[in-house]
Amino acid sequence: MDDESARRLGQMLKAFGRWEGFVSHLQGHRYEDESPLYLQRLEETMASKGLVLDEGTRLYRARLMPAGGWLSSYKPLDAKEMGAPPAHLASAGRLNYQGSSVLYTAESQTVAISEVRPWNGARISMATLALNRELRVLDLVTTADGTGDPLLYDMEWISHVMGQPQHRDDMSAYLGTQRFGAVARDLGFEGVRYSSASGAAGANVAIFDTEAFAVVQIDFVEVDQVAVYWKEVEEDPSWSTSED
User: Fold this and answer.
1) What does the H/E/C string look like for 153-173?
2) What is the pLDDT of residues 59-85, one digit of tens each?
């Protein structure tokens, strides 16, 4: 590993530690550190990371067809079903608390499909959306390469966390990113652009104003093939869960 790679790895590990301390504070596990100040320190950096999406910008939203019924296999969802759910039906998500509606979109169709975790043969309604006005979003996708500012590494780490799939049984998985989303709203941002863990080209865009788009078209697609690659991982005895 060269010196630059080692320096970057060290900065990202520190960013990871600061994030974990912040999330632990939200979970009520730690009170002795400065975790409440974590987002306050980031606010100035967040304010400088605005990106304006022009009116007419195309974004994409994919939805798996609902289970059951023959229509779910032969007819795409209606335009009204491709938007964000109404607030009273909105479940908690990466950037929103339960009861707060956010529209989750992607910059490409491939990213949008990947984000719904499909299977071979899954049928999907794919909406092409066009923004009906300019939107100023918080851009977390650009990296901190070439800078020694630790706050930029914090932002890059948060973008990474937002894009990662979470275990369905982990009810607190989004505590940190939900709080981050609330701060972004308070700073006047109308959405957040963040990385996708799918490996496909493009990013995700979460939009806070769920009326800021029009449905241009809806395509009905079927997933032809999902590739899975895996490797064996050696057990680390230092992380044993057994009690002596």
Assistant:
1) HHHHHHHHHHHCCCCCCCCCC
2) 999 999 987 765 567 889 999 999 998
